[in-house]
From TrEMBL:
Keywords: Aminotransferase, Pyridoxal phosphate, Transferase. Its cofactor is pyridoxal 5'-phosphate. It comes from Mesorhizobium australafricanum. SUPFAM superfamilies: PLP-dependent transferases. It holds the Pfam family Aminotran_1_2. This is Aminotransferase. Its EC number is 2.6.1.-. One of its GO terms (molecular function) is transaminase activity.
Amino acid sequence: MTIIQTLRPEALAAPESGIVAVVNHGRLREGLIPLWAGEGDLPTPSFISDAAARGLANGETFYTWQKGIPELRQALSRYYARHFGKTFAEEEFIVTASGMHAIQLAIDAIAGSGDEVIYLSPAWPNFAAAAGVAGAVPVPVTLDQSGNGWSCDVDKIAAAITSRTKLLFINTPSNPTGWTADKETLQAILDLARRKGLWIIADEIYSLFHYGHGRAPSFLDIATPEDRILFVNSFSKNWAMTGWRVGWIKTHPALQQVFENLIQYSTSGVAQFMQRGAVAALDEGDGFIESQVERARAARDLACDILGATGKARFTVPQGAFYLFFTVDGIADSRAAAFDIVDNANVGLAPGTAFGPGGEAFLRLCFHRRLDQLEEAAHRLAKWMKTV
């Protein structure tokens, strides 16, 4: 028996990220325009970094509140009051070491060996992989696509439920498709979860990156305090803090001790000086978010105009998030295409194969970048399309 064969089967089965594989292939290429990762190109704004630096300078380098410092949980309460019109006590928030950590803890609290967890696909691959590592069985339900865009057939979710199903993972606005559930769809999903006694993990990280009127619809608009919903979120997208690895869970106050215990046995808490930056992000960052959403809207329209004019790219204009998920006539293997685009167009895209069932033929482009760079990347892609 080799050393690797002594590891848990769930760990051995954890897949290599199809996105990272392309990143590693092209990371060091001179002049490459990287549109493969889910982040913008601006560094964290100074009002956030300066707050963290002050905390560091003040010696906030010791163990701290494992569920998050009171000031940050209070700031989260104010954030939800402003953007969602809901009043939540600080006891309803748990600070985590990233949005991914929030998802891991949510899965750990609900599902384990042999339990089934349903998610909507194409999907950000980390949820299904994390569920698998926990011993659960991820069950994809594909979104529908037509000339009217992406949509969710709730009857398909219902058909996928078995006696082993424990939770539904719902990401809206969606990475990678940009699909954004309307209130009626959210209500139908919640009604189904209530009837079947299921939990919902609601990933609403892109709620404010919505190109309609105001933020995207949320389960918070229709849920009651006793509904079995865990809201997972992150500071990464709204405030250009992807490298900080700070997130949160919005949960029922009765569950606070459970999640504080899970924090204890995973990370033992987020550095206090980093939490100071997160407080500043929440309390001072609404204007920054608004500017980022408008910047992303302009970038979305530019990318859609240039790629749409090729006559070879097929896509639905995304309603939310900051990705263009598109196919190219004549391309069936998006993984091979992504490597070829790196080699011959010097642009980095994520292959749709990384996003599970329903995504195989697609490529994902993150358009949350400055317009001149995005325009150059789009023209390079248009030129590449002429060769296939």
